[in-house]
UniProtKB/TrEMBL annotation, chain A:
<feature type="transmembrane region" description="Helical">
    <location>
        <begin position="58"/>
        <end position="82"/>
    </location>
</feature>
<comment type="similarity">
    <text>Belongs to the complex I subunit 3 family.</text>
</comment>
<keyword id="KW-0813">Transport</keyword>
<keyword id="KW-1133">Transmembrane helix</keyword>
<keyword id="KW-0520">NAD</keyword>
<dbReference type="GO" id="GO:0005886">
    <property type="term" value="C:plasma membrane"/>
</dbReference>
<dbReference type="GO" id="GO:0048038">
    <property type="term" value="F:quinone binding"/>
</dbReference>
<comment type="function">
    <text>NDH-1 shuttles electrons from NADH, via FMN and iron-sulfur (Fe-S) centers, to quinones in the respiratory chain.</text>
</comment>
<keyword id="KW-0874">Quinone</keyword>
TrEMBL record, chain B:
<feature type="transmembrane region" description="Helical">
    <location>
        <begin position="70"/>
        <end position="94"/>
    </location>
</feature>
<dbReference type="InterPro" id="IPR001694">
    <property type="entry name" value="NADH_UbQ_OxRdtase_su1/FPO"/>
</dbReference>
<keyword id="KW-0472">Membrane</keyword>
<dbReference type="Pfam" id="PF00146">
    <property type="entry name" value="NADHdh"/>
</dbReference>
<feature type="transmembrane region" description="Helical">
    <location>
        <begin position="12"/>
        <end position="34"/>
    </location>
</feature>
<keyword id="KW-0812">Transmembrane</keyword>
<feature type="transmembrane region" description="Helical">
    <location>
        <begin position="142"/>
        <end position="164"/>
    </location>
</feature>
<feature type="transmembrane region" description="Helical">
    <location>
        <begin position="284"/>
        <end position="309"/>
    </location>
</feature>
<protein>
    <submittedName>
        <fullName>NADH-quinone oxidoreductase subunit H</fullName>
    </submittedName>
</protein>
Length: 116, 313, 445
């Protein structure tokens, strides 16, 4: 419990540092706040909002990533008991990881790692 | 073994946070000293963070057309925030601010926050290059995150603990880098990657005019740059704790050993900037998934077999 | 208030120790650009591509038309305190830049005010330039009308009145278009150039982006001041060899910068400057330096992995696009970005030892045609690439805007006849499809 109190304190201190920076800037800045400027576009003026439905071409990889990421949940618990459980635990985990790697190889052959 | 580890008193957080913030400023100086470009006197290099911060505090407030202010602000503070929160579980010598018992998982959870942080900093300004920079970070994160996670697991397996101070204590005889050199290198590289640094600076690349930094000026730029250096500092210290024996060393006190080793790792990370080209994310992706990931898993297998053989008998 | 002002002065003095220079090169401004680059380095400054991060805007040469307009936009995007420095004569670059930085250091509180001084009524008459009487004609199209009602101390940005839409910020939402997989996706219209880091200044490639993938690319070359000269074509004999090597090193520097290897890019630029200035330096030493750089670059596995196989132009493409010069000869080595980089480095070495490889050609190939063909090749290669790859391809071709301008392909020397859109197409075909200053390579099917 005490651990998390100090973590909250750390969070507060960082936010305080950010506020100090903001206040220092407010006190020291020259001129007034500018009107919003056009976003940088190599010297051109934008005609449309940049915020849009951005097409990410690596979306198939995110699924593959998710499979491994969920696997990490087991991994941490497993890490604590490997030494205790011995060879059995190692075999089980690496058979599972091997299956996941087979998925990676399959995705690679399907071209998921080459998206441009 | 555990007696080595001390839970620092509650007020230590008041020291730890400023320490990280100051170390990040010094990292800025060291970065300038290691910059291969130009022939500048040492003094001008050491003071570079001061010069840059001065500019940031002086400039006119600036905003872009129709930005997403709230998300932008969240993104801007995240790197620094993450670095400091990570630092809570990183031991200095043998003392740690918060030994959560699962410090390793905490570190991992914090680094995943960066996915959101960097992306939001890119999304906020409503600017094309900035947005592309944000997505570039996500593509890069897909490449580095898994090797990072498995590299983190290896010391946990060897020490049978998720507590960072316990992991430090477990390597007093022999540093973990001896039995898991690959995991150590991969972890250090991942630190550069989550700080968008050196060969992993694609999200802030010059080819997209600074990427997610393109619209950041004044305090926003200051906080993001500060956060970048803080991430490198804390990442270096974590590398030392997990793989380089933490405070272990002759003669000098443990806290000093931690600082010296961390500074050495930090210098290597800083020196990578300007000295090698940036990895393009699609090539990085193939390298990470097809080469680094299997290698890290093999490394983990070796560590697990050693642990099982040692613990089982 | 006194305390605040003195604190501001202190900070301004510190900030000016490391000026952030945003450099814009107008056609014909190459000599001035090189001088400014060297001087910014000597003053402890850094070149930046981001207006948000800049405090010194340096304009090398005299832009007009769309480029002048772009400079105006960039200036409005730089937050105060800021100064603008116009460098027409390379010999004065050092003095002008130092004076600008000095002004930045000494009058921080005048930052916002200096905005008005520099840009009173659509004219840029810089203090330090007064003796040259350098001024810019007001431009049509976008105009600076928005500035006249600027509030005291602030700088106002006009131009948000496009179309009278009731959208946030007066901007439209992104439109949609089919992508290569037949999906209907948001498409953004982005102009690469005229001002972009490590970009052939004055070149504009209008791209359509879906995500960060270039779906379509259309090339324009902006009109310049009118008396542009081809900087890299000068010199004869040994001097020609040195200049050719320097030209290639300039290109190498840009490509390495785009590839994110700023240390090596800086080395290439440094060697370029040595070759151009110290004519007394023995060729042997220069060659040794060059070879060290070449070994360093060729040994980089990461760079090779990034560049090999990208932007391939085989022998067929070379003859179809009318390429000449190093880009054409790079086809022997595989014709990709990596091959073009190697060709530059090899030919720079040869130029130092025995003069330019093809003495009748310029560094970009046949005089008057080399850069046109390079631009055509860029437009041909870009669709389907992601933005980073597209930048590497353009940097590996590195058309020289001066070259384009002085051949007249840029057309449109009249600053009032629209921004290159209605350029004169009467200059005849220069080995480019259609012989216009537009190349549209359509969309990726």
């Amino acid at each position: 419990m005490g651990d998390f109190v100090s973590i909250l304190a750390a969070l507060g201190l960082v936010l305080l540092a950010a506020v100090v920076v903001l206040v220092a800037h407010r006190l020291l800045t020259v001129g007034t706040t500018s009107e919003p400027v056009a976003p940088y576009l190599s010297g051109a003026r934008p005609t449309e909002h940049a915020l849009s439905r951005y097409h990410v071409r690596w979306y198939t990889l995110t699924l593959l990533f998710l499979a491994f990421d969920v696997e990490m949940l087991f991994m941490y618990a497993w890490a604590l008991v490997v030494a205790e459980m011995g060879a059995g635990a190692v075999v089980e985990m690496f058979v599972f990881l091997g299956l996941l790697m087979a998925g990676v190889v399959y995705a690679w052959r399907e071209g998921a790692l080459r998206w441009v | 073994m555990t007696s080595l580890v001390q839970q620092a008193p509650a007020w230590s957080v008041l020291v730890a946070v400023p320490l990280v913030l100051c170390a990040a400023v010094l990292a800025g100086s060291l970065d300038a000293v290691l910059d291969p470009r130009g022939e500048l006197p040492l003094r001008a290099r050491l003071l570079r963070p001061v010069y840059e911060a001065s500019r940031s505090l002086l400039v006119q407030r600036r905003s872009t057309t129709a930005p997403d202010r709230l998300l932008w602000a969240v993104g801007v503070v995240t790197p620094l925030l993450v670095a400091v929160l990570m630092a809570q579980v990183v031991p200095l010598g043998f003392a740690v601010v918060s030994d959560l018992g699962v410090g390793l998982v905490w570190f991992n959870a914090m680094d995943v926050l960066l996915w959101a942080g960097w992306w939001l900093a890119g999304w906020g300004p409503n600017s094309v290059y900035s947005l592309i920079g944000g997505y570039r970070f996500l593509a890069q994160a897909l490449a580095y995150e898994l090797p990072l996670m498995f590299a983190l697991t290896a010391p946990a397996v060897a020490a049978s603990s998720l507590s960072v101070p316990q992991i430090v204590a477990a390597q007093q005889g022999r540093w973990f880098i001896v039995q898991m050199p690959l995991a150590a290198v991969v972890f250090a590289a991942a630190v550069a990657a989550f700080a968008a640094w050196g060969p992993f600076a694609h999200p802030v690349g010059q080819d997209i005019a600074g990427g997610l930094l393109v619209e950041q000026s004044g305090p926003a730029r200051l906080l993001l740059r500060w956060g970048q250096y803080a991430l490198l500092v804390v990442g270096s210290a974590m590398t030392v704790a997990l793989f380089l024996g933490g405070g272990a060393g002759p003669l000098l006190p443990p806290w000093l050993w931690t600082l010296l080793k961390s500074a050495a790792v930090l210098a290597v990370l800083l020196a990578m900037r300007h000295r090698m080209p940036v990895w393009r994310p699609d090539r990085l992706m193939r390298l990470a998934w097809l080469v680094v990931l299997p290698l890290v898993l093999a490394q983990l297998l070796v560590v697990s077999v050693l642990a099982a053989a040692g613990g089982g008998s | 208030m006194g305390l605040r002002t003195s604190a501001q002065r202190l900070l301004a003095g510190w900030a000016a120790r490391r000026p952030h220079v945003l450099l814009v090169t107008a056609p014909g401004g190459t000599a001035a650009r090189l001088a400014v680059e060297a001087q910014a380095r000597a003053l402890g400054g850094v070149l930046t591509g981001e207006p948000a991060d800049a405090d010194v805007l340096v304009v090398a040469g005299s832009p007009d038309g769309e480029l002048a307009d772009a400079v105006g936009v960039l200036w409005s995007q730089i937050p105060a305190p800021k100064v603008r420095v116009d460098v027409l004569d390379s010999a004065r670059a050092a003095a002008l830049l130092s004076a600008g930085i000095h002004r930045l250091a000494s009058t921080p509180d005048a930052g916002a005010e200096s905005t008005e001084q520099v840009e009173p009524m659509g004219e840029h008459v810089h203090q330090q330039e007064a003796e040259m009487g350098h001024e810019h004609g007001g431009d049509g199209g976008h105009g600076h009308g928005g500035h006249t009602d600027a509030e005291q101390g602030g700088h106002e940005h006009g131009g948000h009145d496009h179309g009278g839409m009731q959208m946030p910020g007066g901007l439209m939402m992104a439109d949609r278009a089919p992508d290569r997989d037949g999906l209907k996706l948001d498409v953004l219209h982005v102009a690469l150039g005229p001002v972009l880091p490590a970009w052939p200044s004055g070149l504009v490639i209008d791209v359509e982006l879906q995500g960060d993938v270039v779906q379509g690319a259309e090339v324009r070359v902006l009109a310049g001041a009118g008396d542009a000269m081809r900087f890299w074509a000068d010199g004869t004999g040994v001097a020609a060899g040195r200049r050719r090597a320097a030209a290639h090193l300039d290109s190498v520097g840009r490509l390495l910068e785009v590839a994110g290897w700023s240390g090596a890019a800086d080395r290439a630029r440094g060697q370029r400057d040595v070759l151009l200035t110290e004519t007394g330096e023995p060729v042997g030493e220069a060659r040794e330096e060059l070879r060290r750089l070449r070994r360093r670059v060729e040994r980089s596995w990461g760079l090779r992995r990034s560049l090999a196989g990208l932007g391939r132009l085989g022998h067929g493409d070379v003859s179809r696009l009318g390429l000449s010069g190093p880009a054409a000869r790079a086809a022997e080595r595989g014709g990709d970005v990596w091959a073009r980089l190697q060709t530059w480095l090899v030919e720079a070495d040869l130029a130092l030892s025995s003069g330019p490889v093809a003495p009748a050609e310029g560094p970009r190939g046949r005089p008057g045609r080399g850069s046109d063909a390079l631009v055509a090749a860029a437009a041909h290669l870009m669709p389907g690439l992601d933005l980073g790859d597209a930048r590497l391809v353009v940097a590996s071709l590195d058309p020289d805007p001066d070259d384009l301008h002085s051949t007249g392909v840029a057309g449109d020397r009249d600053p009032h006849s629209g921004h290159g859109e209605n350029g004169h197409h009467d200059e005849g075909p220069h080995g480019m499809p259609g012989g216009t200053n537009h190349q549209h390579d359509g969309h990726v099917a």
